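Continuing from the previous page...

OK, I double-checked the sequence for Acyl-CoA dehydrogenase against my notes and this is the correct one:
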Amino acid sequence: MLSNGILSDQLTDRHRELQARAADHFTPQWLDKWRTSPDGHLRRETWQDLAANGFMGVSLPRELGGQGLGLLGALVLGEALAGARDGGIALAMHVQNEIACEWLVSARDEALRDRYLPGLVAGDLVACQCDTDPSPEEPTTATTEGAQVVLHGRKKFVINGATADLCFVSAVLDGAPAIIAVEKSTPGVRVTEVYDKFGTRSVDSAQVEFDGVRVAAEQIVSRSGISQLMRWNRVMSRMRLLIAADAFFTHRALLEHITGYVRGRTLGGRALGAWPVNAHALARARAHQELMEAGIADAYLRVTAGGSTVPEIAELKWFCVEKANELAVLATDLEGGAGYMWDSPSLRAHAQLRGFRMSGGSQTTMLTIANHSMACRAELELAPSGADGARRG
Ligand SMILES: Cc1cc2nc3c(=O)[nH]c(=O)nc-3n(C[C@H](O)[C@H](O)[C@H](O)COP(=O)(O)OP(=O)(O)OC[C@H]3O[C@@H](n4cnc5c(N)ncnc54)[C@H](O)[C@@H]3O)c2cc1C
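Thanks. Re-ran it with the corrected sequence; updated structure tokens here:
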């Protein structure tokens, strides 16, 4: 993001130091060193190593044990993580550092924060976010029984679901939405499937079952009402902004790769990239890249200013992920048959980008959120003002 004037102006010396250190650290060779098997996911100890090297709790305030580098720090780290050429590690780091830590920082019960936050920042604990129910007809439910909460349900495709020690589970608690922190070692929690997948392979994706799991009511991180909705929106918008940036970083690397490739490959007497059909397609991709960068900078400013960001960030995630996927399709075509071979950089990038389509909510969901929120805003704008000038509706 350094090339973006708005964001680069905001970088402090500490951001720049992180940027330089992380860029050297996260390479495909680094990733291979920590995998359980060739092309497999990361070993559990990687998390402690990440902490030992100063890559955990980057955005977290210093008084809570973090590095105090805020959302910009998370973006700087995301940029470096893209150098590993596998989107899984970035997704898992966002879940751990942005979602799980944020739930704890804003938890109603400070004891929860004290119990888990130091472990997350040290990499001794790994977290996952369990949201996706098998279907709307099979929601994860929880009921209060005295001083305990009892959970029933299953969650699919959970990033780090197999490795994690701590699950943040979304559930319908006594009829209203809630987030509950559940330790993986609690009786009734089971990993029922670890998926084999196309991209983002550096972290596991698993199905996790909660079968009559009993936890203390103090493990409720957030429950019902407007504050639950606002916290959910804040956490998910932050995650979506970081995924939009991940897509942008992948797009940027891919465009650089394919531009070099089409310059060097001569077909029909001229460079492949000089044929107007290809030159125009790549010019469009360059325009998309600039729009993505501007959108990310704008969203960053909105988030840090504390304004409403839900529809704007949903649109941004949709746009960045959509355009990066389009470029991946173009780039694999431009590579010809080589673009179908598994060592093709374009095909590898495409595999990561397919994962970004669903993580943080599907592309269709992004459009639904944007559409719905914008329609609500328009309705509020149209509502007549009362005598005191206050809006009704
Ligand atoms: C890489 C990756 C990481 C993920 N990480 C996590 C995680 O950490 N935790 C977690 O809980 N989940 C995670 N997921 C799951 C992800 O959030 C879901 O896959 C996604 O929300 C879609 O839900 P689904 O798979 O049940 O698809 P479905 O709900 O079956 O939807 C299928 C398709 O239909 C579309 N659709 C749905 N309803 C409508 C409608 N009314 N009209 C038109 N189209 C519709 C959807 O947008 C989607 O494209 C991850 C998924 C991937 C691929």
